[in-house]
Amino acid sequence: MAITDIPEYAHLSASDVEALGAELDAIRADIEADRGERDARYLRNTIRFQRALELVGRGLIFGSTKRPLWLAGAGALGVAKIVENMELGHNVMHGQWDWMNDPEVHSSTWEWDNTDPSAHWKHTHNYVHHKYTNVLGMDDDVGYGLLRVTRDQRWRPFNLGNLAYNTLLALAFQYGVAVQHLELGKKRRTEEDREQFRRDLRDVATKIGKQAGKDYVVYPAMVAATTGRRTGYLRAFGKAASANATANVIRNVWSNAVIFCGHFPDGAEKFTKQDIDSETQAQWYLRQMLGSANFRSGPVLAFLSGNLSFQIEHHIYPDLPSNRLREISVRVQALCEKYDLPYTTGSFPMQYAKSWRTIAKLSLPNKYLSATADDAPETASERRFKQGLPDDGRLHSTLDPATGRRRGLVSAIAGLGRRRRGGRAGAGRDVVARTVVGRDVVGGDDRAA
Q: Which helix H or strand E contains 406, and what residues bound it?
C-alpha cells in the first residue's frame, strides 16, 4: 500500500513536522519580501526571447520547402512553444507573477499556446494536483487515468499496453492535458452535471479548433500564398503544416518528459486519502517533499524545463517565481539534511529512464514483480520499516548519541538496508541517502524491483 501515515513514514513527530513547516514558511516570507525589479526583468526578458524565437521559427518555415529551413523552423518553433508552455504559461497561471499587478502576465488573463483552456488547467493542475499531490483516487495526474504507475492501482489486462499508451501520450501530450478536465470516465447522474460537461466539452473543442486553425490552416495558408507560386501551393502548404506539427510534437514530448521526471521516478512516493483532509500546512509541505523529485540542471536545462528541474521546491512553493527556485533549493536541501529527509534527485536521463522502467514493470500483474506494494521502488509505505524491528510502534526520529544528529527517514532507509544484508556490510560501509548541498542524493535504499 501507499503511505497512510506521512509523519510516521518520515520518522518525524508532530512537533518535528510543525518545526519543519515553520522553517519552510520562513523561506517563503524571505522570498516574498525580496521580490522586485530583477524578477520582473527576468520575466520581461523571457517574454521577449520567446516571442522573438517564435517569429524566427515561423519566418524560417516560410522557406520550409527547403529541408534545412524546414528543420530549423520546426526546431525553433518547437523550442518557442516549450518556453511559452513551461516557463511562461505554466508559471504565470500558477500566479507566480500576480504580485506585479500587470494584467498581461496575470494568472486570471493568460491564455497559453496549448489545446487545454487555461481555466480548465488551473482547476485540474493548480487546485486538484497541487492540493492532492500523488494522493490515490484524488490526483488524476497519478497515471492520468491511463497508466498504471503504482502497485496500489489494481492491475487490469488493459495495463499490458502501458508502454504504448505512454508513447502516444508523450506524442500528443497537449491533447491528453486538454481532455483531463473532462473526466471522460466519470458518471454524471444529474442534468446539472451533464450540462456542465457539455459546456466544458465545448470549451475544449473551441480551444482545439483555434490551435489547429492557427497551426494547420492560417500559417500554412500564409506560407503557401507567399511562396506557392514558386514552389507549388500545395507543397508549400503541406511543408508548413508538417513543420508546425513537428514543433508541437517537440513541445509535447519535452513537456511529458519534464513532468514525468518530477512525479514518477523512484522515491516520488504515493499516498492514501487517510488524514489528507485534516492535514496541516506543515504536513502538506512534508507530503510535497516526499511526493516530488528533481533532476540536475544547469541554467539552460532549468530554463527549458520552466525551472521544474526543481520540482520539489515548486511543489512546496507553487506560486513563487520560478527564477528563485534554484536559490530556494539550497535552503530546502539544508532542511532535508537537518531533518534527515531524502532529497530525491538525479540526472535528467536517469530520472526519465526510471519513470519508463516503472511504467514498463507495472504493465505486468504484481505476481510477476519481486517487490511488495509496501516496499517498491516507485512507492512504499511506513510498513516497510517495521519488519525486523523489536518495537512495532511509531517510527519517530531520535538523536544519535554519538554524533547528536537526528536519525529519521534517511537513517531508517540505511538501517533497513543493513538488516536486509544481515549486518554483513556494517554501519560504517553503508551508503546513506543523505542530502549534501551541491551534491547528488546517493541511494542506499536497496529496494527490490
A: strand 406-407
DSSP-assigned beta bridge partners for residue 399: 406
End-to-end Cα, the chain, rounded Å: 16
Helix (H, G, I), strand (E, B) or coil at 432: coil
Q: Are 350 and 296 in contact (CB under 8 A)?
A: no
CA 1 → CA 157, 335, 386, 444, distances in Å?
A: 21, 28, 14, 21
User: How many residues are present in the chain?
Assistant: 449
pLDDT digits (tens, 9 = 90+) for 384-442: 887 655 554 556 667 667 666 777 899 888 887 777 777 554 444 443 444 433 335 44
Whether residue 10 contacts residue 290, with contact meaning beta carbons closer than 8 Å, is answered with: yes
| Residues 15/16/21/26 CA torsion (nearest 10 deg) | 100
Q: What are phi and psi for residue 308, nearest 5 degrees?
A: -80, 5
Beta-carbon neighbour count of residue 87 at 10 Å?
A: 25
Q: Are 175 and 390 in contact (CB under 8 A)?
A: no
The answer to whether the Cα torsion of 172, 249, 114, 213 is positive or negative is: negative
Count the alpha carbons within 13 Å of 142 in the hemisphere toward its beta carbon.
24
Q: Identity (one letter) of the amino acid at 68?
A: P
What confidence score (pLDDT) does residue 443 get? Answer: 41
Task: Say how far apart CA 61 and CA 83 lie, in whole Å.
Answer: 19
CB–CB of 352/297 below 8 Å?
Answer: no
For 56, residues 6+ apart whose C-beta sits below 8 A from its C-beta are 76, 80
| Cell numbers representing residue 290 in the block | 516526499
Residue 91: enclosing H or E segment and its boundaries?
helix 90-93
- Write b or e for each residue in 184-222: b if 16 or more Cβ atoms lie within 10 A of its Cβ, otherwise e: eeeeeeeeeeeeeeeebeebbeebbeebeeebbeebbbb
Cβ contact 8:394 at 8 Å: yes
Grid coordinates given for 448? 527490490
What confidence tens digit (pLDDT) does each residue in 141-176 have? 898 889 999 999 999 999 999 999 999 999 999 999
